[in-house]
Design brief:
By secondary structure, the protein is mostly helical. The protein is built from 12 helices and 2 strands, in the order αβαααααααααααβ. It has one domain. The protein has helices spanning 3-6, 23-49, 55-63, 68-77, 79-108, 112-146, 148-157, 159-164, 169-174, 176-190, 196-206, 218-241, and strands spanning 13-15, 252-254. The longest helix is centred in the middle third of the chain and has 35 residues, at 112-146.
């Protein structure tokens, strides 16, 4: 390949401050991610409320330490609705990954250390949520295969091991949800990105339940964890898509000349 042919292959511009996932993807994630996350919390809440339990079942659920029995019983009655709630919640966790990275980029312009640590810890907790989603699905499949009572007995007898995960990696990573969001909120407040009210709202998102077959309660789940993050992230996403956030802009400069215009093979 000649030197002249390489001119059409190499970029003609250099983006010194380019960052992934970029303003368009990040701005879209700041809007769509919280909405899907909120929808998952809401549908999970409605899935349990739609189930009709006997007084004996209600008393049994109240006496349990974990929420697994009521979640499995709700699935047995409304499998499609409960599955939709858990699926939307898992999808919301995936979409919050680029959203949180974009938010951390905004904060990092003035408070980089808090943004870096907060983002890394919170994103790690999102990975843990996908592990928990896999365990949730397995439990639902057990209800279909061996029946509600046997599935409930098995999950409760193995709940600690299932929740902690291999080498306790998922449960350790899940701690980053609270700590990571706390660091991000402190950084955003110091950087002037968020005020006190919006900072508290976003902090509630970090307190959303972690673990296997958890109940999505109305105050701390749907409202505290879902509505709050929508109120904070969606306006930032709209501003990002309208290119009103200087921290997210990537400026282009002419690419510098290279003495050896060879394409690397390794």
């Amino acid at each position: 390949m000649t030197k002249s042919s390489l001119e059409g292959v190499r970029p003609k511009q250099e983006f010194a401050n380019a960052w992934p996932p970029g303003r368009l993807i990040g701005g879209t994630a700041l809007i769509v991610g919280p909405l899907v996350w909120f929808a998952g919390l809401l549908v999970r809440h409605l899935g349990v409320r739609a189930a009709e339990f006997t007084p004996q079942q209600e008393a049994y659920f109240a006496a349990q330490t974990f929420d697994a029995p009521s979640q499995l019983a709700a699935y047995a009655q409304h499998p499609s609705l409960v599955t939709a709630g858990y699926a939307l919640f898992a999808g919301g966790a995936v979409l919050l990954f680029p959203a949180v990275v974009t938010f951390a980029r905004i904060v990092a312009a003035r408070c980089p250390r808090l943004a870096f640590w907060g983002c890394a810890l919170f994103v790690g907790s999102l990975f843990a949520r996908l592990y928990f989603a896999g365990v949730d699905l397995t439990a639902f499949q057990l209800v279909d295969r061996i029946g509600l009572q046997q599935a409930t007995d098995f999950v409760l007898s193995s709940y600690v091991d299932l929740s902690y995960g291999l080498w306790r990696i998922p449960v350790t990573a899940s701690a980053g949800s609270i700590l990571g969001m706390l660091l991000l909120v402190i950084g955003a407040w110091r950087a002037g990105v968020l005020g006190l009210v919006r900072g508290v709202l976003l902090l509630l998102c970090g307190w959303v339940f972690m673990g296997v077959l958890k109940e999505s309660a109305l105050p701390l789940g749907v409202l505290g964890g879902g509505v709050s993050v929508c109120l904070v992230f969606i306006p930032l996403g709209i501003a990002a898509l309208r290119d009103r956030l200087p921290e997210l802009r990537a400026t282009a400069e002419p690419a510098p000349g290279r003495e050896r215009p060879k394409l690397p093979l390794w």
